[in-house]
Amino acid sequence: EPEVTQTPSHQVTQMGQEVILRCVPISNHLYFYWYRQILGQKVEFLVSFYNNEISEKSEIFDDQFSVERPDGSNFTLKIRSTKLEDSAMYFCATATGNEQYFGPGTRLTVT
Amino acid sequence: EDQVTQSPEALRLQEGESSSLNCSYTVSGLRGLFWYRQDPGKGPEFLFTLYSAGEEKEKERLKATLTKKESFLHITAPKPEDSATYLCAVQEYSGGGADGLTFGKGTHLIIQP
Questions:
Q1: Which of A18, A91, B73, B75 has most Cβ atoms within 10 angstroms of its Cβ?
Q2: Whether the Cβ atoms of residue B88 and residue B71 lie closer than 8 Å to each other
Q3: CA distance B21 to B24
Q4: Could you say which residues from 43 to 82 on chain B have a Cβ atom under 8 Å away from some Cβ of chain A?
């Protein structure tokens, strides 16, 4: 069964550093999403991406975040200058219609 | 005010003891209501989508129902492997094609053998 994959599984970075989180969507999916989940809290929507552009973004998705699909397969989330409060699980999700399928997540730890 | 409220926050059942989890929502235009299962340290696993009041869907021991204000996830004769956090999420019409989901905090379900 096709799955969404994410790399790395765990990333440790220092405050102020840039990180790139990667996702490989299910092959025929056209809609892409990033969510985050701070430890013990609910899953929060960050951004959606369709037809090579951002479709919707939340208040969390400020200027330090960016997304792109650089090579037609990977879907990436870049955090430009990480803060302590960016520590969370980051999930990629992909969809052909309304049903979103989530990857296993990247645990980001900012020290 | 939260758009999606799940109750109870935690539920402990004996194996075989049926129960229901509740998800109440307040959105102006519901595109869909989703149920996911999340195991510790893992990503949410898709279970069901419900689109209109009166709709029901079943999968093994789980059955999801939808009204205009809430959804229930009924679990019948649960087994220990059903232990997980069950997440409810809603998707609103925004005019765009890729609408994000708004999640509730989840119900942490433990099934004791």
A1: A91
A2: yes
A3: 10
A4: 43-46, 49
